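Hi again,

Forgot to attach this to my earlier email, sorry! This is the prediction with heme C bound. I've pasted everything inline since the attachment limit keeps bouncing my files.
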Amino acid sequence: MISPLALSEENGAKGKELYGIYCAVCHGTKGDGQGILMTREKFLGVPSYADREITPGSIYHVLMYGKNAMGSHAGQVNAKERWQIAQHVMELRNTLVK
Ligand code: HEC
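Structure tokens for the complex follow:
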């Protein structure tokens, strides 16, 4: 799957905001897997994005359907928001693997 949205500052900023609300508790604001739930050991097994071969399409998929201990986020974020979040996650991953 390929994002229908253009990579833009606006989409990235919106994705960052949504990520902070829905994802950072587990994945951490940097995407290193050190969210607050992880550091308090309430939730285990959250990977760093650097350790996963992910693409915008695969991120969209995991948000739709979930994966193992990560539940689906289909009810929280709509299609456009899923792509915006995917853009932000790819930016985080690019920073982590540098
Ligand atoms: C309750 C904790 C939790 C929340 C909230 C959460 N995740 Fe996850 N996420 C996980 C866990 C655990 C895994 C590892 C799943 C596995 O591979 O077994 C994971 C895996 C992933 C992966 C890697 C999937 C792959 O293909 O390897 C991506 C990308 C991801 N999450 C993105 C997100 C985004 C974006 C959000 C916010 C919309 C989010 N997650 C919210 C726990 C969470």
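Residues 79-97 form the longest helix (19 residues). The two ends are 25 Å apart (CA to CA).

That should be everything now.

G.
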